[in-house]
Design goal:
The complex is a heterodimer of chains A (435) and B (124). Chain A is α/β, with parallel strands linked by helices and 435 residues long. Helices cover 28% and strands 23% of the residues of chain A. In chain A, strands 8-5-3-12-23 form a five-stranded parallel sheet, covered by helices on one side. A five-stranded parallel sheet of chain A has the order 14-21-15-16-17, covered by helices on one side. In chain A, strands 9-10-11 form a three-stranded antiparallel sheet. The longest helix of chain A is centred in the C-terminal third of the chain and has 19 residues. The radius of gyration of chain A is 24 Å and the shape is globular. Chain B is mostly helical and 124 residues long. Chain B has one domain. The longest helix of chain B has 29 residues. The radius of gyration of chain B is 17 Å and the shape is globular. Chain B starts with 5 loop residues before the first helix and ends with a helix. The chains are: A alpha/beta (435), B mainly alpha (124). At the A-B interface, strand 1, strand 25 and helix 9 of A face helix 1, strand 1, helix 4 and helix 5 of B.
């Protein structure tokens, strides 16, 4: 008896056609809103690029101007991978113009001042731009000078790392961390006592270098010390507890309420301000993350909170609408926004549609009901090949995207894949305003 | 993280394999699939005799696929932490197995052998 399954060509083609129909997109789009408004976006990074691309699709006739002096676009979520030798520096660098559409104007200057009453922005080159709506998305400033004895020239030499400072510095950080992983000693990992970009990154770097040095010089020949700025390891209590247990499991020593204030690169000694006075810790490798603040023009233009984060100057916006509390024609997006938590690309992804909706509604004289609940996500790497996909909101609730499938507090390979390979693709889609 | 479009998926695979490698892999897969379909249409039948041999290739395909994915993602089997990891990895293994089977089946159909040619002749 012949073992055959006879295929009818007609049936086969019908099946193929059905499969094709299933994968067709269900497209539907509202009519663009006609307007002649001038929208100025300060910053063409993740927030500025994503918002401009989204607005272009929603508006017809709007003039959109972006201000940004930087030619390169940095994929910042990749810095941690560069600083652990998992990617080259060029992995995180593209051009700012790669992400901007033809319909927008890019002015390659920074903002120097905003007059929120006269509705103008002055650029560092002295140009004055009048706006109908202003979106602040300039990112933040790394205050390296606040740490006495530290300078960016040191990064990569004498056991000094500082991965936040940019792609090249992240690569140099790896040079120093690699040496430590091969030779051992004390690895000291710090974080600042201000709001900061991706509060998971100091932990990721600790976990990665712990893992790499364990595979390198070996666990017995090196000690990892994590210096937390406060009494917790992460702002979300349940995640903080989980990290505490992981650190215990890995033998990572933790000191609390230690804020790095100065260092002696020659003697390889760091000094921390603590509730019990200054404390010194010797290191062979130190990872420095400086205090982070809003760009000076935000503070100088009177756009910052007066009673919160006074040493940092984040923009005074409503945490649900991201609209300025005193100047309704101004929004803030991304790092500069004075909201709790979430200075991450994931925050930007969820903030941009809210700003877009409120801005478009305002142009139509309507109100938008869109709200940002503080969602942010942190694929918290716990070693090479494993991570926890931690997602949470303003209220410290965990908000897993894939409940029952990807557990938020479980070390998973799939969560590592999210960080290592899936994140850049979704990030790029976000920049184009597609996700 | 929730938006999974075809564009995003392609970008994800580009991340994993690199631009050149990905399109080489896709081209190879497309050519083999087209050849497989050609053989199916030509023979108007699936030969279980050919599949018998093709099945022998499946474990090798499964292992190769898992090793490739682990290598390009800087991972090792020890990193598999929860059920979803194992499910995904079994899926990768299954795809590798099916791919290998299709490849061997197609090659056999073109190269042919007396043993596997018999059932098609018998059917006709």
């Amino acid at each position: 008896m012949p073992h055959v399954l006879v295929l009818d060509r007609r049936k086969f083609l019908a099946l193929a056609a059905a499969a094709g129909a299933l994968s067709m997109p269900l497209a539907g789009r509202a009519q663009p809103v006609k307007t002649s408004a001038h929208i100025v976006i300060v910053g063409a990074g993740a927030g500025g690029a994503a918002l401009s691309n989204r607005l272009l699709r929603r508006l017809d006739g709007a003039k959109i101007t972006l201000l940004d002096p930087r030619k390169e676009h940095f994929y910042q979520p990749g810095f941690s991978l560069v600083a652990a030798g998992l990617r080259d520096a060029d992995y995180v660098v593209s051009r700012t113009t790669d992400w901007l559409s033809k319909g927008v104007t890019l002015v390659s200057e920074a903002a120097a001042a905003v007059d929120p009453v006269g509705k103008t922005v002055t650029t560092t080159g002295g140009r004055k731009l009048a706006y109908d709506f202003l979106v602040l998305a300039p990112g933040l400033v790394l205050d390296h000078e606040a740490i006495e004895g530290f300078s960016l020239d040191l990064v990569g030499k004498n056991g000094v790392g500082a991965l936040y400072a940019g792609p090249d510095y992240a690569a140099r950080t790896w040079a120093a961390a690699k040496k430590f992983s091969e030779e051992g000693g004390v690895g000291l990992f710090t974080r600042p006592n201000t709001e900061m970009k991706c509060a998971g990154a100091p932990l990721k770097h600790t976990f990665l270098i712990d893992d790499i040095s364990r595979r390198g010089v070996g666990a017995g020949k090196r000690k990892i010390v994590y210096a937390s700025n406060n009494a917790a390891l992460f702002s979300v209590p349940i995640v903080s507890e989980k990290v505490r247990m992981l650190f215990r499991d890995r033998g990572v020593e933790t000191v609390y309420n230690h804020v790095l204030k100065s260092m002696d690169p020659g003697a390889k000694r760091a000094t921390f301000a603590t509730p019990n006075g200054d404390q010194q810790i010797k290191y062979d490798y130190i990872h420095v993350i400086p205090p982070q603040r809003a760009p000076a023009f935000v503070r100088q233009s009177g756009l910052s909170w007066a009673d919160k984060w006074t040493d940092q100057g984040w923009a005074e916006v409503d945490q649900k609408t991201l609209r300025h509390r005193r100047f309704p024609n101004i929004f803030a997006l991304g790092d500069v926004a004075g909201v709790p938590k979430g200075k991450t690309a994931a925050s930007v992804k969820w903030q941009a549609p809210v700003v877009e909706d409120h801005l478009v509604a305002a142009l139509q004289g309507k109100q938008s009901a869109a709200e940002y609940g503080g969602y942010t996500s942190c694929p918290l790497i716990t070693r090479v090949g494993s991570a926890m996909l931690v997602e949470f909101d303003y209220d410290n609730n965990l908000l897993p995207s894939f409940p029952g499938v990807i557990a938020p507090l479980e070390e998973l390979w799939i969560s590592w894949l999210m960080k290592e390979v899936a994140l850049k693709a979704t990030y790029n889609a976000m920049l184009r305003g597609l996700a | 993280m929730k938006d999974l479009t075809l564009q995003t998926m392609i970008a994800v695979f580009e991340e994993m394999f690199g631009n050149v490698m990905l399109w080489v892999l896709i081209s190879v897969a497309a050519i083999v699939t087209a050849a497989y379909l050609f053989v199916l249409f030509r023979d108007r039948a699936v030969s279980w005799r050919k599949f018998l041999l093709a099945q022998l290739a499946m474990p090798f395909g499964a292992v190769a696929a898992v090793m490739l994915v682990l290598a390009v993602t800087h991972s090792s089997l020890g990193d598999l932490g929860g059920p979803i990891d194992w499910i995904v990895m079994l899926g990768v293994a299954a795809l590798g197995a099916i791919g290998a089977a299709i490849l061997v089946y197609t090659i056999e159909s073109f190269v042919g052998s007396r043993r596997t040619g018999e059932d098609v002749r018998a059917m006709r």
